[in-house]
């Protein structure tokens, strides 16, 4: 079974994503900040991380940079899902760390996100 980690400080977002993804047969765990997310991604060997950008303790960009510095994390698939409109500085930082996609939460339907997850994990 494919393992997905949802890293988002909004409990309602994390819960909805976890419920929907679990219902599709994925093993899902959640983390409320980048520090916990980094630990879980490495310890659980997640197949995919769905990552918010703006979070307490460690933001998503710092988590992504730290993840990419780890041997295992270099190839980990990451989808950014954020409320932040990407500006030039965010885009530069995000794409330097090779995510699969960057979605604005308000601009993507849940069904489209789930379809992208299936596509990325080839199910």
TrEMBL record:
GO biological process, one term: phosphorelay signal transduction system
Lineage top rank: taxon: Bacteria
Leader peptide range in chain numbering: none
Domain Response regulatory: 3-121
4-aspartylphosphate: residues carrying this PTM: 52
Matching Pfam families: Response_reg
GO molecular function annotations of the record: DNA binding
The keyword Iron-sulfur appears for this protein: no
Record flagged with keyword Heme: no
Keywords associated with the record: DNA-binding, Phosphoprotein, Transcription, Transcription regulation, Two-component regulatory system
Protein name listed in UniProt: Response regulatory domain-containing protein
Taxonomic lineage: Bacteria, Candidatus Collieribacteriota
